[in-house]
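tool=predict chain=A
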Amino acid sequence: MNEPEVVRSLAALAQEVRLRVFRALVVAGKDGLTPGAISEQLGVASNTLSFHLKELAHAGLVSQERHGRNLVYRAS
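tool=predict ok
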């Protein structure tokens, strides 16, 4: 990882909800979680969660994969 990537990652995690989401995904491991499961587990509104997942993905901290009609997020 180069310095700009590290700064981007740390900046993404410097927000309470994003840190909680990332922790939940790390605990979930390779199975990952759907946005609905994350929302329910953390008590975060789905529209707010969508914004935070986008920020984590932009920072390279999470990946998403489509399974049928669902998206599954995993910690990278």
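Strands lie at 62-67, 70-75. The radius of gyration is 12 Å.
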